[in-house]
Amino acid sequence: MKQCHNQCPISFPFYASVISGQCLDSCEFYSIDGSGSKICQSTCSLYKIVDNLKQCVSTCGLMYQNGVVCQSSCDIFPNLYISSDGQRCVSKCSGQDAYSLNFKSCDNSCFYYQKLGVKFCTEQCPIEQPFKYVDVRSFCVGDCNLTAKTFVNAADYTCVSPGINFAYQTIHGVYSKVFLASCPDYYVIVAGLGNQCVSVCPSQLYLNGVICASSCSSGYYIVTNQQMQCVQYNSAKFYTMNSSNNLKLQLDDCLKFAQTDNECVDYCEFYEQTTVKMCRTGSEAVCQHFELVSNYKKCVGTCSGAKQYIKGQECADTCKGYLIDVDGVTCVGNCGNNYVSMDKTRCQIAICNFSVQNGAKQCLQECYIDKPFMNIITNSPMIYECISDCATVAGKKFVVDQNNLTCIQCTQTGYSTFYINYIIAYKCESACPNDQIYQDPANTYQSVQQCLYKCPQDKQFIVNNNICSNTCSSLYYITDFSYIQPYLCVNLCAQYYIINDSLNQCVDECPPNFQYILGQQCVYQCNYYQIIASEKYCKLITDIICNYYIIDAHNGNKECVGQCQGIYQYINGQMCQTACNVSPNYYIDIDGVTCVQNCGLNYYSIDQLSCLTTCTYYLTTQGQKQCTKTMYKCPPGLRFIYQNQCQTNCPTGLYFINNNMECITCSGSQTYKIIFVEGISVSLCLNSCSLLQDSSSAYFGVNNCVTQCPEINPYLNNGVCQSTCINQAYHIDINGSLICDSLSNCYYFTIDVISNYKICQLTCPKYNQAGLCVETCEFYEIDINGLNTCVLESNCQYYLDQSGPKQCLSNCGSLYNDGKVCRKYCDQMPNKYIEIDNISCISSCGLNMVSSNKLNCLVTCPNSLYYIDNNIKYCTESAFCPIQFPFKSNNQCLNTCTQFIDSLQTINCDLCVLNGYSVSLVNDQQVYICKTCPLINKAITYLNKFLCIDQCTSDKPYIENDECFQTCSTLKYTVSQNILTCVQSCPLYYIINTTGTVSQYICIEYCYFPFIFIDGQECKLSCPSYVQTINDFKICTSCTFYEIVNGLQRCVQTCDQADNKQYINGFECVNQCPFYVSIDNITCVSQCEVSQSISGSLCDQYCRFYLEGGIQKCSIDPVNCPLNYPFQILSFGTTYQCVNSCPTGFADQNTKLCSSCQVGESFIIDYAYNIQYYICQPQTCTNSLKYRDPNQVYNGVLRCVYQCPESHPYLNSTSNICQSSCQDNTYTNQSAFPQNLICQAYDPIKFYIINYLFNDGQKLQVDQCGGDYNFIQNQQCLKTCVNSFYQIINKQNYCRTGLEPECQILSDQNNNICVDTCQYYLNNKVCVQQCPQYIDLDQIHCTTQCPYLNITTCVSSCWYTLENENDINSQKICTKVDNQCPETAPLHTINSQHCIKQCPIGYYIDENDNTLCINQCNGNRPGFTLIQINSVSHYKCVSQCTVFLDQNLQYQSLSLCIQNCPFIYSDANDYCLLSCDGILDDGIHCDPSCNYYLDNNLNKICMPQCTGMFPFFMQRGSRIECLNRCPSFASITGYCLPTCGAVPIPKIMFEQITQVCYSSCPSAVPYIFGNICVQSCDLVNQFSRGIFCTTSCLPNEYICDNSCISSCSQCSKPYYENNICQSSCPMYYQGNQCVSSCVLADGQQCVSECPINKHNVFNFCQFSQNCELEVDGFCKQKITMEPFETVADTVQMHVTTVKYSIIGASILLLLLIIILILTCCQNRIKTKTKHAINEQKTFKQIIYNKQKQIPTRIKDTIPIIENTYMQIIQSDFAQFNFTYKKEEENRPQSQSLEDKQYSSNISNQEEQETSYDPYGGTLDILE
């Protein structure tokens, strides 16, 4: 229930609000009013934590403000520093603030130094900024010269301003100038601002008394102690001139050379060595001999000693590059007539074997490959010259042999040749070698005949002992191709036959083309008066008279017949033919059967090769009338027809032709036109002219039909061309003809300015002015014909707004009217708006709206939105207000809103109905956005609405359930992005925040600096006791011993585990006791005992000591002094005292032993534990500090610096002293700036840059100009030339000076580079890489016209084409390839270089040159062919038309040679034939005497015989057809047969195409399957019987290796089972038959009784002793067995033994014996691969057979025995199976069938055995 109070009680101390009377126990934020009441607030802009609650405050007072929180200290990361105003916590000090000395606050008034832009408070300036600048705020600087106070007070190092008449010196660099009253003991440089005190004058000044002067009055000076000092002239001394000031530097000696006036110089051509190197001058300037010493010429009297050799005037130690002459000392270029030694170093007079090389006689050990031949010069001693060819030696042009290349004279009868290094050598032969036995009398060398490998082509006959000849002197010759030479001449043919072919050839067999024998002679055929008496022999007959005969196509013999009939119906003399195809009788006479040579007075048909009585058209060729082909009418060249005959032209009087090419006359009522027939102009008579006639060009009274009227009669009137038009008017038709017209038709016209005729137009293209077509008019209208007709302006009611002529309109239509102007847009002032009627342009819309495009007047806006601007209502472009008027209120857009807006997107201005608002900006004005707020500041309102806040205020900074409170009710909160959120509990760690009224917990994910210690969940600044590090976490704990690590107490078990802290100080492990170490060397004590001395932490009697507070203390380090007393002074002779500074200021760098520098030494500054001291250095300085700064002097010693200061940037390399300038004002930059600039004597050969780094007139001397300074003028490098023009010499840019500053030749158009010559071409004084037009003949200048143009280059002559073929004076363009015409104009005539596209009329293309035009063809049978060149037909010469000749096609009296006959066939004379019934030998020529032929379905090709791809043949009438296969069968000779005979004869497939018959199968296929020869019976079946293959053997036959035999004894396998022979039996055999069991077995053999030496032991015959037989026939006693033969024997014996054994021990003993024996027999088991399975079967069968005989008491033991044995078997056979499989993999493929058969049998046996196994198991040992 609610209880009333006068004031809120202690338990509910907070007022909910000022107005409300509700008391609360807490709130997140609160403030205290004037009465002291605590008023809850929604948020605070600033608060402090009081009792863990957030109290809103206006200021933090004595606390520090960290964001919105007031803190008592700045210790929360990252704001760890107190600001300089002492009110805020900041993350860093910036601006003028510096970090305080304790590094916890910022200070804006302390004395500071600055590093990397950050200020640090300090009490003493650091070494790198040693000077103090005192002002309103003081700070450290590295250089006073950078401040307003440019000098240094030496007493306190403060920057000061100088007084009057002051002096100064520099320290710590060139910029720090120490203020002095005067310069005691120093030289003075008098300057405008004070006098600088220096110990040494700068390099550019001279010591003149005590003043550093710029010059010496005496003119001489010396350099001493790196000081230039003026002196008086001394004639005994030498000097060198200083060109910069004309002073002479006086020297004791010259560095290089001296002139006679004692001036030192750098160079002289010759010198003599006296006390100095004195230059030779005058008449003795050149010495006779000299030595090169450091590349200078030192004169000597003679060359001797190490330099004894004479090279011209020079004495040298070697003649390298030269030869030593015969005198042994003179170096020469060649030896003249003497010889060059073998080592090519000297000349010798002694003769030697030599070779002339480059004119010199070079001695050689032996001849080289380039000169391998030896020409003997002398015989005693034998000296020879090496030469390249013996042919150059007179009389000795031969060599001995390949191994002895001595040139000799040949006295033998023959020679052979070979090559040495591609040089032919001639070897003298006493007899020709076996591979070169032939000789040709005409082929001689030095009168000796050459031995030849074979005779030359023109001498193929061999006569008189291998002499080559072109004929046989004897009667016959033999062709023997076993010889290299084919023809051997003999006197008799003897056993040979003779072929009579102009020579008498002897052959051992007549060839196919002379296959018949007549006597001893081979003949081609037996003539019709001979018949064949026997094979290939001819015999004469006399009793038969042949009227007609037929030639046998097979053998060429003639068969006599009574008459020609059937297919041989055509009669050619006495020969019957299948067609008239034998020369010369190719034509069939009009009787239809007689073959004739010509048709006489009749006609003949070229299509059918027959004679005709009539034909439509004909031509006369060779006196005969040839009918033309219907499709051609008349052939080319004979196109004109007169009286049905083809003519070359029409006869006189017949000047016209008709469309049939017939010559006719043309009447006056007809017309004609000119046409071209094969290049000939002819007149074609026409019945009518559909085009135009011209009466002025009548031909024989007939008007000409033309395509266009000529200029003389240009006008066309009623189809006739005339010179005038009657009505003086015409129109132009689509063909461009001028057609006369009437004036009534000329409604529109233009005027012909020449004839003043009216040119009638269908319409005016632009404007019509009273019928006259004009180009323009001011106003026009479009009439009813759509024509633009000109009118007056007064007749225009409206007109279009357009440039040029203005179109008049009756109304503006869809356009807007602006007065009389019709406009597309109302865009002209003042009428820029479109009226509401959408017709007129007006100046204002009045009270109406203006459209968004500000063009149209509207009653309402399309988007219902408008805004008012300058009292004009404008519609918006869209449904949103424009940016200038963003607020929407009742369809009006406003530029301000005094109410609330709904959002920044819609910006509707209206009242707010929600609980709060936020503030934002729209167009830079503040607006209030109505919204529902999660957090509200009730203290701030607008129109009775509360301000939404994004975060809590400082007085209520905590958010709990989306409300702001002073504290969290849970007292736990998280901080995320400066938002404090209350939580129920901290998941990980927390920090206690005690700054408020209530202590709260800040939840964090990990402990961070400085709260790095974990005490439970709390992160602390430190641990209350000790700390232990676990997994890098610092855990507060307690322990016995600890060590301090980084200020933390880390627990350890003992101090031995501490980090090098072996001493115990209380419970702390320390590496050093605070006072002393006790005698145990572990425990720390406060003082030593009386008997112990103080030595660091120990007491010692002897030590290196120092005084502190009057007490003498030992140094901890027995060798070095302590840090605060780093320097040592030797005291009492042997003891060192440590001091904090040296009296002299100098000390040794390593030992810190105080010392002092010698005169002339240098020094460097070092620091010993922040105490500065000086280290002596040699005068030259060393290491990186190797330069001496004259501005920094201490006790008369110059300081060594890293680099020269900018005020003295130049280095005197002799003294290493930095200078402000160089003596010659010249220096070199040996490394990149800002490294030292080395002064250097001016070298006139080098180049220089003035003011390169500083504007001080100094010259940087460089080897060459470059970079920005890449131009040279008088050795000075410039950035640009004064007159802009320059010239490149040796890759340097030299500025043009003198009388011709401008270029005569410019390098290019864009640069002012002068050149002497152009790299490419010169065009108008400018070098160009490419001429704008052509390159002139001199290949230098550019030109615009060439005599001949080669691409862009002029040439004096070339093969050319004309740029304009119709203008012979146009540019002659050279062809791309010289001496060759291009493809576009590929032709030329003889002796002409003009390339043309087509040969002139009457010219042919040359037969051998497709580019040459000639006017006459030559040859035995000249003719021409038609070829296409660039789609143009040309006639090409053919000198020998050997293949096809068509005499009907002619040009210029030559016939056309065609590639193929149009009728395919031709006769022997290569005339085309219409058909060919004979056999073709090549598919083209007819040959009726062909015996063998090949039918390719198109024609029959003759063959000499049936061979190659067509080896089979079949008789076809009298001829034989060659086939690639026979239709059915073939004989072994290739003859095709219908069958292989009455009874089947074996045959074999031949190449899988033809079946060849055999009487017996050949050895390659010896077996017969059916009637087919096969290679093996395995191909078709499994068995063979002799040579026959069968599918099965007879019942009484046996099978051995797939053969059927009568007994197995006939093969190597004597045993059989199931009629299959085997080499052995798997179990037993009886006789030769394999059986599975025996009644009695002797080994594997079944016997009726055992042999006499064996006994029956359990049905097995065994060797035994002491055997007593029982009734059942078995031995009873224990037996001793011999080694058994098989596994089966042993197993059966032992199993039987087990049957009768009683004692178990005996059974086990026998098992051991079995195992041992089986192991021994393992190798035997492996070898019997094929018997292994059978032995397994034997064992199992024994067990099974004997089972019934085993007594019951023993039967249970059998499985144990069997299993034991089986394991052994399995182990052995597993090994065997692996070996067997490997062998099978390596076995040849031919054995695989047998192996597969064997494996198959084994598998079948296993399957059968598995079925009756009595023990229920299987033994698959092969697995």
From TrEMBL:
The chain crosses the membrane at residues 1700-1721. Keywords: Membrane, Transmembrane, Transmembrane helix. Residues 1784-1823 are annotated as: Disordered. Residues 1784-1797 have a biased composition (Basic and acidic residues). This is Transmembrane protein. It comes from Hexamita inflata.
